[in-house]
Amino acid sequence: MRVITYTEALREALGDELRRDPSVFLLGEDIACYGGAFGVTRGLRDKFGPERVINAPLSELSFVGAAVGASLAGSRPVVEIMFMDFIALAMDPIVNLAAKLHYVFGNQARCPIVIRAVAGAGRCYGPTHSQSLEAWFMHTPGLKVVAPATPADAKGMLKTAIRDDNPVIFIEHKMLYGQRGPVSTRRQATVPFGKARIVTKGNDATIVAWSWMAIEAEAAACELAGRGIKAQVIDLRSLCPLDMEPVVESVKKTGRLLIVEEGCRTAGVSAEIGFRVFEQVYDYLNAPIRRVTTPDIPISASPILEQTAMPGRKRIVDTVAELVKQ
Length: 326
Known about the structure:
This protein is α/β, with parallel strands linked by helices. The protein has 2 domains: about 1-185, Thiamin diphosphate (ThDP)-binding fold, Pyr/PP domains (Rossmann fold), CATH 3.40.50; about 195-325, 3-Layer(aba) Sandwich (Rossmann fold), CATH 3.40.50. Helix content is about 35%, strand content about 20%. It has helices at about 5-20, 45-50, 60-70, 90-100, 100-105, 135-140, 150-165, 210-225, 245-255, 270-280, 305-310, 315-325, and strands at about 1-5, 25-30, 55, 75-80, 115-120, 145, 170-175, 180-185, 195-200, 205-210, 230-235, 240, 255-265, 290-295. The radius of gyration is 20 Å and the shape is globular. The model has no long low-confidence stretch (mean pLDDT about 95).
């Protein structure tokens, strides 16, 4: 184990898989010589050549469609969407082709494509470069959706995604790239989908989060501990498949649930999680299920307005403190 950044962990995973499997190639805007908008693919073109680290034109529809076709022909493309907001331009090949090919053709077809999408606010990039759109893809059968929060999970889950025979939406929050953490040196180390991570243990309340919000929830739990409130933080990591068992078991113990989501409130991931808990453990709840989300508004480029809209540790702390009084 050694300590590296989230960016370095992703780069290592891509390098390991390019080296391990000749059918893997990378495709995206400015990913070759420039190394990608956030530097994840920096240096990979020099190691693996322009045939496997390919600059795409400024047309998400065209290069995602080309990647779907390449996956049908036996390749394992890893596509980078510079900002997740731009993924809207490629919804047709993702939702109407990649997600459905196996259902239509059975064992005659597979679509092992990974779409790396840079999501989230926090850098004042404004309404068209700051969205968290994971709920869109959870609503599409046939897609897997993952959102790791730590460097170790980023590396292990990206390896799992590349080796999976199904299309995977791999969400990378832009605030995570500089985060540091211990990562295994083993090239074969993977992290499975559909298994949540217990971040902290506690008996007073359950906090469920993912991606950057898992980091904020952990910080909030530390502050709450200073007030004598012990919160159990669960990082889902994988949104589809979704691991509800540790969430249900935790709520049985704590009787209180807060779900933290950076996406908009209406029809979000938090609504799905909350209702599943309600269906399974209603009798164990000592207080109403609560959510901390972004309001149903576009994200502003103004630092003050962005900070006000974006969920964070203060709102988490205040909400949990209210919950435990009930």
